[in-house]
Amino acid sequence: MNAKMDTNDACDLRFGQVGIACVRVRRVDAAALCDELERRVRAAPQMFARAAVVLDLSHLLDLPDDGAVDALLEAVRSAGMLPVGLAYGTSETEALAKRMGLPLIAKFRAAYEPAAGGPAADAPTPRAEPAAPQPEPILSAPAPGSMQGAQHHVGSVRSGQQIYARDRDLIVTGAVANGAEVIADGNIHIYGGLRGRAMAGAQGDAKARIFVSDFRAELVAIAGQYRVFEQIPDDLEGQSVQCWLEGEKLLIAKL
């Protein structure tokens, strides 16, 4: 039964699409974690300073004790980021999250779920595409078979605005401003300047691609692999480009 709407309620509660980074811990070393994250924040403060992050412990052979996890969380805070939860894992992870007073974020389960009955497995390596594909028209990359028809956004995406195309490609016929985000579970096509962030394959599709008519991005990402730009390389700035994954490396080339 739906709760009746009361205009005197103290707040509205809704679930929505939010951008959360994932910090995958490879060893229990709070000092090393802090140093690495501080380096990332210094390299791209607009992207990572005070960024909301989920701590992923699934790649550790043994789940750390509460004190060690608390030290890791403090390392994240010291680096200038804000831990908001733990990545979904085992029942032990769930119990740990309850003890630490943190939520479990299920979004990250599919990419990093441990193998059944054994220690955490490495994330599967996506199948590499050809190293030097021939340039192709912007509309030539088909969406995966499970995708719906593309979502269209007509006009510019303003700073602070986020557009998310769930289970489909996203086509933007305008510019994406600094501080704006466009996200799609499939491919992204931008018929204009990209000055903000574009994230394709948001649910882990490593075959997704990003196509941009005028490349000046803050960040591009595919299936969680990203590149941040403090300064665009001269050969890419203002060019029509495509972005794709080769293994775990995100590549960018002129069309």
From TrEMBL:
Ranges where the record places region Disordered: 116-138
InterPro entries named among the record's database cross-references: CAP/MinC_C, MinC, MinC_C_sf, MinC_N, Septum_form_inhib_MinC_C
Low complexity bias locations: 116-131
Annotated Septum formation inhibitor MinC N-terminal domain residues: 14-83
UniProt entry tagged with the keyword rRNA-binding: no
Residue stretches making up the Septum formation inhibitor MinC C-terminal domain: 156-252
Keywords: Cell cycle, Cell division, Septation
Subunit structure: Interacts with MinD and FtsZ.
Similarity remark: Belongs to the MinC family.
Its biological purpose: Cell division inhibitor that blocks the formation of polar Z ring septums. Rapidly oscillates between the poles of the cell to destabilize FtsZ filaments that have formed before they mature into polar Z rings. Prevents FtsZ polymerization.
Protein name as annotated: Probable septum site-determining protein MinC
Naturally occurring in which organism (per UniProt): Rhodanobacter ginsengisoli
